[in-house]
Amino acid sequence: MGKIGIGINLEFVRHEDKPFEWGIEKAAELGYEYVEPMVHWGRELLSEAGYFHSVSMLDDPLRIKRACDKAGVKCSGLSAHCPLCKPEISVEYLKQAVRFAAEIGAPVINTDEGPKPAWTTVVEDHVLMRYVLMEAAKFAEPRNIKIGIEPHQQYSKTPDGLDRIHALVNSPAIGINFDTGNSYLSGQDPLEWLVRVRHRLVHLHAKDISVQQSDAERGKVTGTPVGCACGDGVIDWGKVIDLCRDMPQDVVFSVECGTVDQAKRSIDHLKPLVG
Question: Which CATH number do you get for residue 144?
Fold first, then answer.
């Protein structure tokens, strides 16, 4: 039986106008064991000025490790989302993210197919995605890093669509980062879908969806950046946890919510259920 860890995506501090290190310390203060930092390419004003939580992959990756070690938390993975249908962006981005993850001891990088080019066909998009994932997998395999493909966009919004992307490259490095909220909003049953991917699961985005958002958006969108506090919405976390307990591999639930208060309520709800 697999062990379940509780972590949090650093998106929960994006409205606090604070730097990366502040977000790590806040996650530890709230009782989280794991964190999922977001990485980006190049330089941008807000994170450079200390007003945003994302870390540039031009920085020393040990910046992340030092902050985590100081706070007493571990990295469940890196949020490295990029459009897999656009190789001019994603090939080098994912390869760099793999290197970053390997150096800091983060076992997973998470991504999705992203917005597609306006002019490409479905067949062309899958050829492009195969190219990107193959290049990334060749970097990930020798470094023992998993690439978690998330249900989030136009092709991964259904179980069949996500399976098709996953099957593009036959590699032990390619797995699934299941998102409970995105799968629900796309009109699917998250529990049934989780059962379908459980043997390929490498990471889980613990995202709850409020009743109000469900009523307004379910079946109309393919995902959402963050959800409400776990336990405040429509996801049955007891059943999600029971399903993950039956898996042979360990998995981290990385909470995706939008505020510090929601992060606190999420861990207060999940921790007794995980035990």
Answer: 3.20.20.150
Where are the extended beta strands (E) located within the chain? 4-9, 34-36, 39-40, 55-56, 74-75, 78-83, 108-112, 146-149, 174-179, 201-206, 251-255
> If you ran DSSP here, which 8-state letter would residue 259 be given?
S
Q: Which region, left, alpha or beta, applies to residue 166 given φ > 0 means left and ψ of -120 to 50 means alpha?
A: alpha
CA atoms of 204 and 227, how far apart (whole Å): 14
Residue 42 neighbours by CB distance under 10 Å: 7
Residue 146, domain extent = 4-274
- Number of domains comprising the chain: 1
Rounded Cα gap, residues 196 and 33, in angstroms:
27
How many CA atoms does the CB half-sphere of 11 hold within 13 Å?
A: 20
Write down the pLDDT at residue 2: 83
Tell me how far CA of residue 233 lies from CA of 42, 108, 182, 216, in angstroms: 36, 27, 13, 14
Joined tokens for residue 91: 């090939």
Measured N-to-C along each axis, helices 159-166 and 122-143 cross at an angle, to the nearest 10 degrees, of: 60
Q: Which residue has the tokens 């996953």?
A: 166
**pLDDT above 90 coverage of the chain, percent:** 99
Evaluate whether 256 touches 76 at the Cβ level (below 8 Å): no
Asked whether residue 271 carries a pLDDT value surpassing 90, the answer given is: yes
- Residue 131 — very low, low, confident or very high, per pLDDT cuts 50/70/90? very high
